[in-house]
C-alpha cells in the first residue's frame, strides 16, 4: 500500500502522519511525505486570519530559496517524527497551490490513499480563506483521510 501524507509542520499534520505510520506499519505499506510551497507569499505566524496589527510580523514575501529551505525543514522534521514511530519515509517538495497540487500529485503518482491534517478553523475563517483539507477532499480521486 502506497500512502501519501501532506505535511505543513502543524500539530494536525503530525497527527495525520502518526495515523498514517500506524496504518503503514500494520499493512507493510510505504509513506511518501509532500509539502507544497507557494514561494511568493508565505504566512510565517499563527493559524488565525491576519489583522492589521500583526501583518508585519506574520506575512513574509519570500524568495524561492527561503521557501524551499523552510519546506525542506518541515519535511526533515516529519521524517524524524516518522522515524521515532519506527517508519522510514521519503519526502518531496511540490510547487503550487496546495489544494490543487496535492491531489494532482496523488493521482499522477498513483498513491492508494492520502492523509491530511485539518486545523479546525471556524466556519467564518473557512469562508474567507478556504480550507486546504476540504479542497483536497473535493479534488482528490483517491481516498482521503482527514485527521484532526
N-to-C series of helices and strands: EHEEHEHEHEHHE
Amino- and carboxy-terminal Cα gap: 23 Å
| Main β sheet profile | 5 strands, parallel
> What portion of residues belong to β-strands?
15-25%
User: What is the structural class?
Assistant: alpha/beta
pLDDT average, as an integer?
83
Structure summary, number of beta strands: 7
Can you list the strand order of the major beta sheet? 5-2-1-6-7
**Percent helix range:** 40-55%
What's the helix count? Answer: 6
Tell me the overall shape: globular
Detail the poorly predicted runs. 124-130
Radius of gyration: 15 Å
Structural account:
The chain is of the alpha/beta class and 148 residues long. The protein is built from six helices and seven strands; from the N terminus they run βαββαβαβαβααβ. It has helices at residues 11-27, 55-58, 64-84, 98-108, 123-129, 132-139; strands at 2-6, 30-37, 41-43, 59-61, 90-95, 113-117, 144-147. β1 (2-6), α1 (11-27) and β2 form a beta-alpha-beta unit. α4 runs parallel beside α6 (132-139). The relative contact order is 0.23.
